[in-house]
Amino acid sequence: MQRLSLLGAALVLMLSTTPAFAEGPIVIKFSHVVANDTPKGKAALYFKKLAEERTNGAVKVEVYPNSQLYKDKEELEALQLGAVQMLAPSLAKFGPLGVKEFEVFDLPFLFDSYEELHRITQGPIGAALLKRLDSKGILGLAYWDNGFKQFSGNTPLRKPADFKGLKFRIQSSKVLDAQMRALGALPQQLAFSEVYQGLQTGVVDGAENPASNFYTQKLHEVQKYLTLSDHGYLGYALIVNKRFWEGLPAAVRGQLDGALKEATRYANQIAKAENDGDIESVRRSGKTQVLTLTPAERAALRQALAPVHRQMGERIGPQLIQAIHRETGFAMPR
C-alpha cells in the first residue's frame, strides 16, 4: 500500500510540475526523520527561511520532521519517485541503494576530529562520492554533520567484553553490523522512529547515537548509561530529486544554491555545540549516567574494532579506505 501511494504521489507530481512553476510557488517537500531541535532539524528550517527569502516567495519549502511522511527505508524511494523533492538521509542509507562506498563513513574510529572529517567531506573524495548518486536519479548537494556517536545501554559499556550478548540497534549497514559483531553484540536493524519503543520494551538493549539524537528522542528516559566513546561518525547528505532540480528555472536554482551553501555552513558550525549541550542536558536530567572513557579504555575499543576496516575492504573498496587513511593520517592499531 505504501508503494502504491508513493507511485500515485509521483504521478500527480509529474503531471503538475510544469504548471506549478508558472502559476504559483514551487513547492519543495523536505522530509527527514529527526526532531526540529537537532542540528539537521535546525539546518532544514534555516534552509527553508533562506530559500523563501531569497526567491521572494517563488519557492515554498515544506519541512516534515520526525518521520511524519516516511520512515528510514521509505524516504529514498519517495525521493526517487518524486513524492518528495529533498532529503538529508544518514550516509549509511546509500549502501542498500547500491552505492556501498558511502558505508566508509560507518567505519569505527575513522576520524578523530571534525578537522579530519572535513578533509574528506569538503574535499575531492567527498565530491566524488556524491557524484555516484547521479545514476540513481539523485543529486548530492552537500554534507551536513550531526556528530560523533556514543554508545548507550542499561549496563556500563567501557570495554569490549561489556558488549557481549547485548542486542544493539543499528541502521541498515553491513559495516555497522560487522562493528557490533566484532564487539560480541547482536546487531538489530530498527527504523529511527522505532528506537525509543525498542529500548523501552527490551527489543534492543542499547544503541549508538550522537548526543543530540539521544537527547531529543528522549532515549535518556530508557537508557541508564551513555558512554562518551566518539567511536563513529553520523552525517547526512543533502540530496534532491535530480529531474526536479534540473528542471528548475536557472535563476531560482542559483538562489537556492546560495541558500544551500549558507545552510550547510550553519549546519556544520552548530553540530559540535549542539551535541556538547545535549550531553550536559542528559547529565542534568539525572536519568542517565554519563561515562567518560579513560585513554586505555578507548584504545581497547579501537583495537577491538580495527579488524572491521580490513573486513569491509572488499565491500567498500580498499582503495577508497586507503585514500581516506592517507588523508586523515589514520594508523591501524597493531
Automatic annotation (TrEMBL):
Signal sequence annotation: 1-22
Keyword annotations: Signal, Transport
Domain of life: Bacteria
Similarity section: Belongs to the bacterial solute-binding protein 7 family.
PANTHER family per UniProt: C4-DICARBOXYLATE-BINDING PROTEIN DCTB, PTHR33376
Entry protein name: TRAP transporter substrate-binding protein
Originating species: Chitiniphilus purpureus
